[in-house]
Fold each of these.
Amino acid sequence: MTVLLIVVGSQLETVSAHFKTYSEPGIRPGVAYKIPSLPAPDAPRPDPAYPQSNSDANLPVRKSIVDLTPKEKAAFVNALKTVKNTIPQGSKLSIFDQLVLQHVMVAGFEKPFKSSGPASGFNPAHPGHPAFLPWHRQLLDDLENALQKVDPSVTIPYWDWTDPKALEVMLSDDFMGGNGKGVKVKIPGVGTFEGGPVQSGPFADWTLNEKIHIEPINFSSLGPKIVRFLQVPPFDKYPMPKEVIDRMMNLDDYDVFSAVLEGGGVGLNEKGKLVEDWAVHVASHAMIGGVVLKDYQKTALPANQARNLGTMMSILSSPYDPTFWLTHSNVDRLWAEWQDRGHTGEKFYPAKGKDYGYNLNDPIWPWDGGKSKPGNLNDTDLVSMLPVTNKIITAADLLDFRKLGYTYDTTRLRSVKPLLEPKSKPKHS
Ligand SMILES: [Cu+2]
């Protein structure tokens, strides 16, 4: 506990203001991107396309966490714990820890670090880069495949942020466990809030690799336990209004849609205007991980960020909290639904002209055939701990989610377009 308190206290305010540039919470100050602009209303639009896969019969279905039976919850938890404890031959890290490390090391491609290869200088996944969605789609698929080796019935369920029941279901002790305990955070004029290491539920006994569990400003360790500070204001409001998602779903431009869904500095207001905000996906991280703002009255943006508190808010290491996978399953679902609403295929992804890794046919690290290598973030040689893969994967390979072997209960083809009714009857979940 003493160690944890020191770690939390050492996250100092090193964020400086950048005019019109923003970064995800937890991503290094100065690593930033510009708010995209909305296309003119009369700008030519690509023709709507329809799902490429014309059947999803027998595909495993990712469901909302509120619809899981107690047995399904237990199966998911058990598979996750098994993957956390399974160390592949020749590795020092478990399969789960390897996936977390991969997420941490995307930051190793940012300019201050000694990365090499064509991806050098271009973080492949954050913040605000087009590859945010495909990169996480592949990460989720890798975890899901590992879970299914333990139990073929398991899929990664999603946390629908607009479902009033979902937060409680997620944080119950038969699923993800509840708030952390033992550390108090005072927000002047607002109140005192408790969080700390998670001490209830199936993951309270997890021991994290302290070298990989790091906060994103000084890259110092967050300790060996999952840390949560639930619903610290202003990220205490739940559920997310459905209108927020509806407005986003009506966008037609991939770059704008992706930026709004990521929410790392860009939000869409009631009038459909892009505004500075931490919202949608980032708000879900903040609601679980907790953040303290310098000026509570001002918009939550990196320049106004005093401390990141918990695992989920420390974006780099956030996959260490299992809630990460449920929130990212929802991110992927919303992209999948947007694709099914006529934004399917290659017309709805940047084809060229972007930096390496952000174009439709660019290999995305770590799936670029071993060409690129990130730099280390601190004194630990994390790079040497990364698994080696010679796979080559591009965004084009990831656009059709059904080809990866899953669908969502909200993207079943039979309910989207009757003409595409699969010949054989889909399995009922
Ligand atoms: Cu995320």
Note: Residues 2-14+157-215+225-373+391-420 form a domain with the di-copper center containing domain from catechol oxidase fold (CATH 1.10.1280).
Amino acid sequence: MGERMEQQVKSRKRVADHGEVFTAEREVKAMCDLVKPETERIDSRFLEPACGDGNFLSEILARKMAVVRKKYRRSVVDYEMNSLLAVSSLYGVDILADNVEACRQRLFDLWDKEYRSVCKKECNDNMRRAIRFILGRNIVCGNALTLMCVDENAQDTSEPIVFSEWAFVMGGQIQRKDYYFSELLNSPTENDQISLDSPSEEGVFLQQYICDYRRLGE
Ligand SMILES: C[S@@+](CC[C@H](N)C(=O)[O-])C[C@H]1O[C@@H](n2cnc3c(N)ncnc32)[C@H](O)[C@@H]1O
């Protein structure tokens, strides 16, 4: 993260049209520290509802990946499965397509750099494809106010935002369950807080898929 040039405003027009002002790294870190144990739990779910290029999500992923490296660096399979869980627990929505693409790429690059550094010659492209597939589903181009997907002009489409819940079942099999974002928001927890942590008990799910984790996205 330290290698990145920080730019908080891209253009006046983007600020005026979409309130696009990026949070400085120092504030991101300080805010993440407020929930530090959750940011270091590999599968704790986070949603950044106006994610930009992922300032919060990337800080959280970096923290999770440090834990994955520490715990699982001795086994490629354990490392792959847990780093996949870390990525799959992060969700974002942004109304601007270029931000969504930048966010997916940033999270992918962060994950891939770690993957190469830990698994070296045992890295494989199936795993990379699986991570890209998950990011393609979890980081959504949509309107976080109307909960609808948007087109390239940031206009609502008729397609509701759908989020996937990912979980390992039976060893290396990964299960994906899809939910309407609106359903998840209509299911308050005890504290009346939005929770993406256990949607399977709360929302009505749309579809379910199970496959080997290295075949995701085929
Ligand atoms: C203040 S910036 C924050 C970006 C990032 N979360 C950060 O802290 O650096 C707000 C972001 O929200 C996006 N945005 C504005 N209106 C939105 C909406 N209705 N739904 C989703 N994203 C929206 C903008 O494109 C912009 O990237």
Note: Helices lie at 12-18, 25-33, 36-39, 55-72, 76-88, 97-119, 125-138, 181-185.
